[in-house]
């Protein structure tokens, strides 16, 4: 009798406790994934001295596009609303009005089979900017085997007819993992580079400065350096660097590349693309850009820096990263400060 009553009471308590737990659980929010910590704040204006690593001041062997005697050229890739010639001109003009100055260098991108120079490129040239053509290239072994010789020859003749000094960034970011199949190996890339350059020489396209430009990640990981064709083949050494998924000051990001570049003191440095993602917030972006200006000035081997004024997408219109500063007032103000500094407005040579 006592055991039976105890069993009933016990089961009653168990059922009551279970019901209470169910109600409590139903009223509790679903656990969320942990939010990544915010990046450590950068100062509103740099308070320390960035590391001076690449301190060569010339003279530099920079080819027809001569490095400035001091300071650094400022440029950008400015993505237009539509990839048309009028829209390209309008996009660059809008950014220049916001900055209150002309860009020294205008970067643009070409597939291997596209015309190297377009009407908008001629417009930018007439307005006093130097053009940088980022030329995609193709399969390196096919290039070396001569399968693209006519494409290369056509490009060389167009550049020669253009007649102005021009920066050619042949197959930039060749060290990216997704380029491995087309690049085959560093040795294959170097052979293709030399093949392309030899055709330009044969066609008399002597107005080209050759820009070699891997990724910053490649220098951090040690897999960019083997792609270097050599000082006799390259006029400007270059890197693309972003505070995208990882937020860190530019000087920290650039350290491996700057250490490598310091071993090539006759080659001016170009920052071919740099940017800070919108995800980090307006104040952090502005601080990052102000710090970037100090990094450039602390490393005088850097003689050109080009911002990536674009929001890349996945091909369906969904941004994968947002680097545009023109619609972010604090970031734009910081970039405008940089753009108007005398250091970034050197006399053209």
Automatic annotation (TrEMBL):
SUPFAM superfamilies xref list: (Trans)glycosidases
MF terms in GO: mannan endo-1,4-beta-mannosidase activity
Keywords: Glycosidase, Hydrolase
GO biological process, one term: substituted mannan metabolic process
Active-site positions on this chain: 173, 273
Pro residues bias spans: 31-44
Region annotation (Disordered) ranges: 31-57
Domain GH26 per the UniProt entry, residue ranges: 50-335
Family: Belongs to the glycosyl hydrolase 26 family.
Full protein name: GH26 domain-containing protein
Species of origin: Planosporangium mesophilum
